[in-house]
Amino acid sequence: MKTIEHRDLLKLSEEYEEHFLIGAAVNTKTLISHQQLLKQHFNSITAENEMKFERLQPIEGQFQFEAADRMLEFAKQNNMGVRGHTLVWHNQTPAWIFEQRSGGIVDRATLLERMKTHIDTVVTRYKGNIYAWDVVNEAISDSGNELLRSSKWLDIAGEQFIAKAFEYAHAADPSALLFYNDYNESDAVKREKIYRLVKSLKEKDIPIHGIGMQSHWNLDHPAIDDIRRSIEQYASLGVTLDITEMDLSMFHFDDRRTDCSAPTEAMLEKQAERYDQIFKVFREYSKHITSVTFWGAADDYTWLDHFPVQNRKNWPFLFDALHQPKQSFWNIINNK
Ligand code: HXH
User: Fold this and answer.
1) Residue 145 burial (CB < 10 Å; 0-12/13-18/19+)?
2) DSSP-derived secondary structure letter, 106
């Protein structure tokens, strides 16, 4: 049994100091409501939304840095690292970037010029204060043999948009680690595509240093062996791996149940067992892993509340809705 004193002194990030940073995604609300928990257990933060293109440059040339700046300030005061998320993505990106001022679709050169201006401005502003950037997010297709997903970036700029983004980011901050970030990263077919993309970038000497495994997982999926295989295959490219957006949903992606208003004991037990198994793998491969970031911190708020099923809460984290450690937390501490 843990004594109260031990519980108050124990810090998850210290317990994992020899392995990797422990991160949480924050937003402007949780930066306040989760601040005690963040200070106690985490040594890295990521903006859930506040560094996305639509937030930083909603209108051409009009940058809005207030919310992101507050996060950097919080991190600085509490001696935490910051991961940047994300520079180039097909979602949460304003329409203006793809449009001509006179109407119609923008030409390739102008689109790349706009991309460069955005990346220059943002990466330079936080130069030296952000240890890693998700440079390109979710560019790979989930379907069939197609490598890249169809997007305006791809349609207008061609597949080179990815290499360009990394070159611009590296020029702006040569010391930041630059990541390609994606979900379904442990799926056998998508794993192969991510591997192929990153391999081809490395072969062209594009400055890419890591693969971000989003790790939006659930109680059964993916299998531990698939997680392990992905880590091994990605690491074989000589890149760093970050676990960038981890959560363990209580529901399968196609489970549409809405009759669950609190997690059952069985769910909590299963989740604790999964966290235990998964962190064993993370520790085993920790020489390849810089940070493990959760896409939130405690169960009172998660992007999985009402997604993909309306009127359904989820409980994916190590801390419950009252910010108390769950069995999942004790498992990854005690079974080290
Ligand atoms: C992440 N996407 C983003 O990187 C992050 O910025 C955001 O805050 C939350 C999650 C994960 C994701 C990707 C696709 C998706 C849902 C979530 O959409 C799907 C729709 C249908 C089927 C499968 C995925």
Assistant:
1) exposed
2) P
Residue whose Cα lies nearest atom 23 of ligand 1: it is 253
DSSP 139: -
**pTM score:** 0.96
Angle at 163 between CA 240 and CA 61, to 5 degrees: 105
Sign of CA dihedral 70, 72, 73, 74: positive
Residue with tokens 């064993």: 280
Burial of 164 (0-12, 13-18, 19+ CB in 10 A): buried
The answer to whether the beta carbons of residues 157 and 147 sit under 8 Å apart is no
pLDDT in tens, 120-179: 999 999 999 999 999 999 999 998 899 999 999 999 999 999 999 999 999 999 999 999
Which of 138, 141, 255 gets mutated to test ligand 1 (max ligand atoms within 8 A of its CB)?
A: 138
Tens-digit pLDDT profile for residues 22-48: 999 999 999 999 999 999 999 999 999
Between 224-235 and 188-203, two packed helices, what is the crossing angle to 10 degrees? Answer: 10
Which one from 48, 167, 185, 245 is the annotated catalytic residue?
245
Find tokens 């991961």 and name the residue.
Answer: 83
